[in-house]
Amino acid sequence: MKLSELLAGHDYEVLQGDPETEITAGTSIDAHRVSPGSLFIAVPGHRGGGPESVGPALARGAVAMLVDGGTSDLPRSVRVPAGGVCLVRVPDTRMAAAITSSRYYGEPGRQMDMVAVTGTNGKTSVSYMVESMLRIAEGARVGVIGTAGSRIGDELIPMPRSALTTPESPDFQYLLGCMRDRGVGSVVLEATSMGLLTNRVDHSFIDVGVFTNLTQDHLDDHGTMENYRDAKLRLFQGLCRRAVVNADDPVGTRIPAMMPGAVSTYALDAEADYWATDLTMDALGTHFTLHHADQKYPAMIPLPGRFSVANALATLATCHLLGHDLEGLVAALEQMPPIPGRFERFETPSGTSVIVDYAHSPDSLDKVLTTIRGFAPAQVITVFGCGGDRDNTKRARMGEIAGRLSDLCVLTSDNPRGEDPEMIMDEITPGLTATGTPFERVADRRRAISRALAVADRHDIVLIAGKGSEPYQIVGERLLPFSDMATVRELAAPTR
Most buried among 41, 302, 307, 356, by the most CB within 10 A? Predict the structure, then answer.
């Protein structure tokens, strides 16, 4: 496709070369992934990209380049040879990356039902539930893009290893193109605050945007809760046609005014378009009554907790908006398979119940532990830590929550990234100490899990919180293989 076609309708200034240049090898914002025939987009501040990466991108065969309107000059060491390479300046390279990447792959979002889920907690759960619901109720072929990677059913789509939940726009549009070409009818994606703020899902033609909730997290990226909120709300400012929002959340109540006539609400604590009453819970799940359009539907989800019902309501509303029969969806809800790393359960040979959950914010940890306390027959032992190079203001608060709702805590390392795990635990400790609950510090996560299993008795519940289904631990800049559930299964296996 010609560069001029990729940029049609978008402001740009040709600095040199021919905008009729054919782009034959895709788009990239990472210089090391450029191949002959690529369009390289120099995004300021992007690691592996930016103006300083123009030289390496040229060396790898880029035939055209976009530079940002905020970039007055390329680094003096960079020389773009006259002729051959087309150099274009655009007002915003991140916006241009989304548009050009989408067009290069034929605007695949237009050809599938697109669902984007945003919020502090529940993104992964709702994504999995929407996928499962459509597959069980309709036999649909669904693509998922999120924390656990990108897949169609059980088939992973190979991509460079990354810790990004919402991929950068060239990768995102490539994935959508792959899914369309493999017969996918619906795609559900996790839209993170940074993914929305940096235009990664722009030009994706999202049919339904879902808002779950907003609680403290990611202040290291956004600085204030107001900035964090505004990044989430960007999904509902022209990026989606319709919305499903949590009416129990104060931020959710703002969205109907932003999209008049295009919002469906769900709630537990108030009447809404989809709302639940009569919740009864045990360790195996939650029964409730679904209300919609003056009709009542007895429903059950095989997950305990109010938060699980809230996620179920979001899922039912979303799938219903996509045109699927509500009675069939309610029936499918009861058959929902376990969600990896989200209240994922395992029982050891000695009778200890283990729950692995992604809870890594104060609100999510509080909700998971409160739910467990509601059915725990004996002690609750919590293994947890906090991520490094992330909002450190939540650390003591998470310590207080864990201590208040547990009988014993084992404090450990999460994803320390560039921080010293011992220093992170130092910042969690005051919150734990204030509760008077006994705790141990074991920085090595495998040893911490082993210790919790060793002290747990029959009928105790061990919660391992923070990483969920993540298959790695981030230490420095390395992604080291590590799975909480795989570790539990290995440690609990009978010795021969």
Answer: 41
Residues written for the chain = 496
User: In which domain, by residue range, is 402 found?
Assistant: 344-492
Closest Cα partner for 360 from 389, 393, 394? 394
Per-residue pLDDT of the chain (496 residues; tens, 9 = 90+): 999 999 999 999 999 999 999 999 999 999 999 999 999 999 998 877 778 888 899 999 999 999 998 654 554 445 566 667 999 999 999 999 999 999 999 999 999 999 999 998 889 999 999 999 999 988 889 999 998 889 998 898 988 766 578 899 999 999 999 999 999 999 999 999 999 999 999 999 999 999 999 986 656 666 798 998 999 999 999 999 999 999 999 999 999 999 999 999 999 988 899 999 999 998 889 999 999 999 999 999 999 999 999 999 999 999 999 999 999 999 999 999 988 898 999 999 999 999 999 999 998 999 999 999 999 999 999 999 999 998 899 999 999 999 999 999 999 999 999 999 999 999 999 999 999 999 999 999 999 999 999 999 999 999 999 999 898 999 998 999 999 999 999 999 876 5
472 in the same domain as 433:
yes
CATH at residue 349: 3.90.190.20
What whole-number distance in Å separates Cα of residue 78 and Cα of residue 96?
Answer: 22
Question: Do residues 168 and 312 share a domain?
Answer: yes
Examine the domain organization and report whether 144 and 162 are in the same domain.
Answer: yes
Beta-carbon-side half-sphere exposure of residue 51 (alpha carbons within 13 Å): 16
Q: Do 201 and 328 fall within a single domain?
A: yes
Based on the fold, state whether residues 94 and 216 are members of the same structural domain: no
What's the pTM value of the predicted model, to 2 decimals?
0.86
Residues 6+ apart with CB under 8 A from 160: 33, 171
Rounded distance between C-alpha atoms, residue 212 and residue 226, angstroms = 17
Distances (CA, A) of 451 to 372, 420, 423: 20, 21, 21
Burial grade of 244 (CB within 10 A; 0-12, 13-18, 19 or more): buried
Q: Does residue 232 sit in the same domain as residue 161?
A: yes
- DSSP per-residue string spanning 347-397: E-TTS-EEEEE---SHHHHHHHHHHHHHH-SS-EEEEE---TTS-GGGHHH
Which among 333, 359, 374 is the end of a domain?
Answer: 333
3-state secondary structure of 197: helix
DSSP letter, residue 29: S
What CATH code is carried by the domain that includes residue 41?
Answer: 3.40.1390.10
Eight-class DSSP state of 10: S
Total structural domains within the chain? 3
Evaluate whether residue 172 is within a structural domain: yes
